[in-house]
Each structure stands twice: as C-alpha cells, then as structure tokens.
Amino acid sequence: MAILKVARLGHPVLRQVAAPVPVKEIPSPGIQRLIDDMVETMRDYDGAGLAATQVHTLKQICVVEVNANPRYPDADRIPLTVLVNPKVTPLTEEMEEGWEGCLSVPDMRGMVPRPTAVRLEAHDRDGGRIDLIAKEFFARVIQHETDHLHGIVYLDRMKNLSTLCHLAEWNKYWMGNDEQGEGD
Ligand code: NI
What we know:
There is one protein chain. By secondary structure, this protein is α+β, with helices and mostly antiparallel strands. The protein has one domain (12-183): Peptide Deformylase, CATH 3.90.45. The protein is 22% helix and 31% strand. The radius of gyration is 16 Å and the shape is globular. The chain starts with 28 loop residues before the first helix and ends in a 10-residue tail after the last helix. Nickel (II) ion (NI) binds next to α2. Nickel (II) ion binds next to α2.
C-alpha cells in the first residue's frame, strides 16, 4: 500500500469528470490496489473521505470513513465505505448548512448547503450493489465526494464565501476553541 499525493485546488484534474468503472473490472488487482491506497491516504491525512480524482485518477471511486477523527471531533461515526460509480439523488428539498473542509483545499473551512437526505446507489469494492438512503452527516460526506467525481469542489456549492475561513481563524472565531485542527 502507498500514501498517494493529493491534488490541491488549481490542479486541472480536480475539474475533470471521472469515468465509471466497468463492474467486471472492480475485482481487478489494479482497482483493488487503488482502493487500498485511497483508504491509507485518507487515514494518513485524517480525511473524512477521498475521491479518486483527488489522487489524480479519473475513475468513479471514493472512500469515506469517520472514526474519532481529530478534524471532525463532533461528527457522527461512519464505518469505512467504498463507493464505486456512486449516484446520489436528493430526496428532499430541505437544505441544511454545515461546515466542510477538503484535503484539496488545505486548512480551510466553509459553510455549505446540502440536501439533508439522499438516495445513494453504488457498487461496493466486491462489485455488490449498494442502494440506501443516507441522511445528515453521511449524506453530506457522500455528496461532497461524489461532487469531486464530477469536477465540483465544495466552494462551488457555497451560497456565498462569507463563511470561508482559514482553519486557525475557524477554530478561534467560529468554534469557540483555539485548538488547532489536525491535517486537512
Ligand atoms: Ni474534498
């Protein structure tokens, strides 16, 4: 396994659209290795999720995990979830604002409106079908990661940029503590 280099905002790959992975190719060693490397990279950076486009690979794969993450100390836990060819469909017009950060936009946070419930259709790393309803924080994270696979970053989803913060200022003025968040 290897820790991969994460593309930062400005790298053209982040604005490209990833291609679907043919289901019969999901078990291949190349795809399985990519998934393992993405999980290791996400954990090393303390990310809540990572999309393949962020590691310079235009394939529709993302990984998500939140498990006592120092970057998101109050967030709900999310078990390790691997999504291949994810499709997200909003189930409500109700939108909620929530803070987001991104490994490709280091040391920043911003408030992003997202639908609070979505249907998620995808394949897992064994090629099995996933079809479920995601709500709240899990829904937010999979929308963020699926956006990456379509060349969209969270800044594009902000209503305006007035809440865009550097991490130190976010901790100081918005979170009521001055403990530095870790990684990004
Ligand atoms: Ni991101």
